[in-house]
Design brief:
8-stranded mixed β-sheet, RNA-binding, 41% helix, histidine-tRNA ligase activity, EC 6.1.1.21, BirA Bifunctional Protein, domain 2, ATP binding, Rossmann fold, 3 domains, 18% strand, protein biosynthesis, His-tRNA-ligase, 19 helices, 5-stranded mixed β-sheet
Amino acid sequence: MPKKVFSIKKSVSSKKAPESEEELFSEPSETKKAVVNSPSVVRAGKRTPELLRGFRDILPDEQPYWDMVRDATRSVAEAYSFDRIDLPILEREELILRTIGKQTDIVEKEMYAFEDQGGDRVVLRPEMTASAVRAYINHGMLNLSQPVKLYYMGPNFRYERPQAGRYRQHHQIGFEVMGSEEPILDAQLMVLTFHLLKDLGIDTVMHVNSIGTLESRQQYKTELTSYYRSKRNQICEDCKRRLLKNPLRLLDCKVETCQPIKADAPQILDWLDEDSKNHFMHVLEFLDEAGVPYTLDSRLVRGLDYYTRTVFEIWAAADEGERSQNSLGGGGRYDNLIEMLGGREGTPACGVALGMERIILAMRELQVEIPKHGADVFFAQLGDAARRQGLRLFEECRRSGIRIREAFGKNALKTQLELANKCAVPYTLILGQKEVLDGTIIIRDMESGAQEIADVTKIVSLLKKKLEPKEKEEKS
RNA sequence: GCGGUCAUGGUGUAAUGGUUAACACAGGAGAUUGUGGCUCUCCUGAUCCGGGUUCGAUUCCCGGUGAUCGCCCCA
């Protein structure tokens, strides 16, 4: 339930009697006058609504980073034979409840869930694996050649306390492989993740673990729980809670006093069933072969209930050893999920999800160079006649592949040349009244300042000729 | 959800219980209405919101909101 209906309310004193808001919207002329005369209320009407907490605008400045991440993702996905899928942002609440596990924080307190006008319980998706699996089942993808490999990018929503690299709306990149339990596929996910991030200038280390099947994990949980029960009076409050709610999370505790207890706790690897153990060993072998740096992390568990066997997290190598909170991504195998959602029984799958904001944060910290979109030519115009021709001339250039910039919004030639300078173009075209009458145009070499007058009808081919040698230089 | 720190133009900083809240960058206009990279002039533009203390609050106090860090959790 939304707590506040009108954002205006914030600017009006929230402590005033509730009538004050009534006054704003109701008629009585005397009180209305009084209210309108009060400066704070007058301003309140004009106040710009603020961004919702944990939400943000991605401004033009930052877009080059996003473009770079998206481009790299597409190219890696294509290379590894993943097909793009776009999934809806709104899903049935049931889908998420059956997927993530009702006990998790995500479901218990972080979901944007509500009833729509038709009475359906819906949620803004908190993650995308559930949707991908649903789509796999809905569209009968089990009839395709297996495994089905899908990738996607898009926003997710979690009502959490915002922090650096953590937002209520955040974006994820995901890769899912459905319909095969070959350990090489688990490894491939990690390999492609490693290389994707490397392409983006981030060196990473994979943290890997196996949490076995549901059955073997259950046995381990029992063991772990009884171990911690015996130490119950020595552990922190959070751990006491975890003990009841989510025992595997005990292994995540960072409290000093819990560390020795944690160190002696039973290890999940000792409780794996034979098949899982085998599977895991193969995964590690493949990783070794692929040269992906990883560390075995027997305390890595992952938050979502649907994981089985392989689980992993990706950390920036620069963050190793530091207590940076944010992994760049994580994933694992979910061999039961497809069946749990009504798909064919025993259909195995695995996947990985990466946080785009976190990737970009890491890129900024590492000062990764962003490729700039250069320009070849700037078009400067003077006077109405020139502008009229300008639109057509501009389009002609664009069509023939010349990267051209303009500033039709400016009049002064001086200003336009300043902008041309900022664009770092080698040439500027100057079209004024005189040139329009003569059917000519000026080409200015921005480096030397030399100008020549050209026939306006031949300008495109002339420019291309001038630009050619420069392109060759750039390539060599 | 809990705890710490913080909040001044678009950005980065300064200052103050008392007249026009300063500076840099960015933005806009201009330096004989047709020429950039240097320079100069002018302009736009801010004390997060609400309440309290006070003759007077941007400054002090309280509350809210937001950001940030840690915890929880997670991408």
